[in-house]
Amino acid sequence: MTQTEIPSEEIEPKERVAHPFRTLRELVDFVSGKSIPSEVPTEGLRSEALPFPFLAIVGQKEMKLALLIGLINPSVGGILLVGPRGTAKTTAVRSLLDILPKVERSLCYYGCLPEDIEAGGIDAVCPDCAKKYAEGQPLSAPDRVRLNELPLNSRLEDVVGGIDERAAIHERIRVRRGILAQADRNLLYIDEINLLADDIVDAILDAAAQGSYTVRRGSISATYHSRFVLVGSMNPEEGRLRPQIMDRFGLRVIVRGLDDPTERLEAYRRVQAYQANPRGMSTAYFEDTQAAADEVQSARAQLARVTLPDNVANPAIKLVQRMGIDSLRTEISWFEAARAYTAADGRNQVTPEDLQAVASMTLRLRRSQFILDYFSNQEQEENEINTMITNLKRDN
User: Fold this and answer.
1) Distance from C-alpha of 4 to C-alpha of 337, rounded to nearest angstrom
2) Three-class DSSP category at 132
3) What are phi and psi of 205, to 5 degrees?
4) Residue 146 buriedness (CB in 10 A; 0-12 / 13-18 / 19+)
5) In a domain? residue 5
């Protein structure tokens, strides 16, 4: 997936919150593991549309770690959550709302940014933004990352965009931004992604690969940025995911139910408290949630300084080769996830332990038995051809 990193100087990092935990991971593990705060009232406004606190999710450490890594480093290439119903996959994604970091957001309808001019010249932006740039006016401003959801019943026109009917009323023709354009520099979440229609999947693949896409409707056209972090969830009982889109997910998490009866009971207590009083539950976790949000923002700023030494990377590459994995996206996702893990720990150099911590979520579901068998059969055929050619030369 094509991603654009935000230079650390664009968003001023906040000072790390003064809490007793040294790293983001320690904070998340502690808050997620402690009992529900006693100050949560049992009654309140039940109709409030507040997300379940991310730190209140019991267990599921790998899922929470993968989502945090995706927030810290969009270059990991997206997150896929695979598991049965009722294992908090959708809850976890929607609970990210309170810890989403800030990015530089375009002020333009078409998503133009200063870096577009730096990369492609003044013609890379729309005429209005070209004029603003010449006049020294800003083309972007800091804004929080958003969570955009793509419903299963979406039409292709909803996803990529179509003719703006409101503009047509005033005898103007303009292409309306679709969900993919709205997701630029945001999270794009698709629940039950394995049930998406093929034409929608194709549109997502094209936009994710290029980081932009063009909509043509008759004689008019418009090009939009689509640099998003793709997050998908699925229940394998309901069908497989197309290999083309599976390859776009850098992190793959197998989400299982909680094995510990104590954790299951604690999960019930927290859900009960949230359903009774969403506002009270959100308030009880407010300070820890703010600390986690600040740590994510600091880790994003730290990321640009994190390096991966050759003596750490080379053994990892050999492991990928021994596993028979051909896709170079494997190393990209693995190394970028390790860099995010290192940044979350406040360090500047990746260690073998960092690679090990994120190895499972980046390596699983990468091997293809079909490809292994195909190459084996192809090698056998090549040997037979070479043998016949050798015998032909000998006979002559």
Assistant:
1) 16
2) helix
3) -60, -45
4) middle
5) no
DSSP at 96: G
136 part of a folded domain: no
Q: Is residue 352 part of a domain?
A: yes
Per-state percent for the chain, helix, strand, coil, to nearest 5: 50, 15, 35
Q: Taking the model in full, what pTM does it have?
A: 0.79
* Domain shared by 386 and 295, yes or no: no
Domain count, the chain: 2
Asked whether residue 263 is assigned to any structural domain, the reply reads yes
Residues 364 and 135: their CA atoms lie apart, in Å, by 51
The four Cα atoms 12, 304, 125, 133 give a dihedral, to 10 degrees, of: 40
Residues 292 and 343 in one domain: yes
pLDDT at 168: 46
Closest C-alpha to 339, from 16, 2, 5: 5
Q: Can you list the alpha helix ranges (DSSP code H) found in the chain?
A: 24-33, 61-72, 89-94, 114-120, 127-134, 156-160, 165-169, 179-182, 198-210, 243-246, 261-276, 278-284, 286-303, 310-322, 329-344, 352-363, 369-395
Are both 316 and 388 inside the same structural domain? no
- The catalytic residues are 329
Beta strands at 251-254 and 79-82: parallel, antiparallel or unpaired: parallel
Residue 21 confidence (pLDDT): 61
Range of the domain at 389: 368-396
Query: Hey, is 89 helix, strand or coil?
Result: helix
For residues 324 and 373, membership in a common domain is answered with: no
Same domain for 247 and 297, yes or no, is yes
Chain centre distance of CA 110: 22
Q: 380 and 232, same structural domain?
A: no
CB 337 within 8 A of CB 378: no
Residue 43 shares a structural domain with residue 77: yes
CA-CA distance, 253 to 247, in Å (whole number)? 14
Token pair recorded at residue 394? 């000998």
Which residue ranges of the chain lie beneath pLDDT 50?
1-18, 46-47, 167-171
Tokens of 366: 């990468």
